[in-house]
Amino acid sequence: MTGVKIGLVGAGPWAKVFHAPMITGGPETELTTVWARRPEAARELASEFGATVSNTFEDLLDAVDAVVFAVPPFVQAELAPLAAAAGKPLLLEKPIGLDLAQAEKLVAAIDAAGVPTQVMFTNRYSPRIREFLDRAGKQTPIGAVGFYVNQAALPGGFFATPWRVEKGGLLDLGPHVLDTLDAAVGPIVDLQGQGDPQSWYVITATHANGVISQAFMSLTSPVVRDVAGVKVYTEQGELECEFVGKDGDPAVPGVIRREFAEVVASGKSHEIDIHRALYIQRLLEQAAVTNPDSTATTAR
Question: Any idea what the CATH number is for the domain that residue 185 is in?
Fold first, then answer.
C-alpha cells in the first residue's frame, strides 16, 4: 500500500529539519512535491528528500492527496483556503493567524470547504506529554505554572524569522503553554497578560474549576538551554512535563505522520484541529495587552 501523497508548502529551516523528515520517515506518507516562495529553496529541499518541485501552488494541489504547511502564519492563512477549496486535507502550523481576525477568516473558509484538519501543536503528540496529561486529568489541581524561555529569536537564532521577531513570544510560544495548561488543568475562562511580547511576557489564567495558573515566556532571553514545560500542583502531589522543544522528542514525528494519515483516510478532523487552534488563538488575543513598545492590544 502506498502512502498518502503529500505536498509540502514551504522550504525554510523548520521544513528541512522537521516537516520533510517527518513526512518521509515512514510508510504512511510520501513527500510527492514541494512548493515554496523561494524556488531555489524548494529545489534544494526536494532534491534532498527525493521529491519533485511544483512551479506553482496550483500545480502542487493537482499532484497530491493532502497538504502540509511549513510557512509563516500570514502565508498559511492566504494559501490554506485554496487548498481546502480543492478538497485537500490539511496539516497546519500554529498559530493559524497573526491575529484573531485572520484566524477566524481561515477557519470559516476551511469549514465551508468541509475538509479535515490537524494542527501541529507538537507537544500534544509526545507520548510522555500525553501520559502527563492523562495523569493530570485523574488528579485534583490546585495550581499550575507554565514556562517557555529561550533565545531562538535573538539575531542569528534558528527561529529569528521576521514574524517571530516582530510579534514575540506570546504568539509563537503562547500556543504551546496555553494549550498544555488548558489540557492539564481545565478550560481557561479568563486571562490577563502583562509585559512586552518581544522581551518577557507573563499570563495569569483562571480555569473553569477556579484554579489559577501562571505562564511566562520569552524568545529573546540569553539562556544556556531552553526552559520549557508545565508544572501542575494537585491535592495528590506534583506533576511536571518538559516540552518537546527544537531538538524534539524522537517519537513525535511518527505520531504526527500516522495520525495525519488516519485523518486523510477517515475524512475526520483530528482532536487537535483548526477549532482547537482557534480556541487557543482567542485566548492569545485575550491575553494581549497594550504596551508602549508593542503593537499588542487587549481584546476583552
Answer: 3.30.360.10
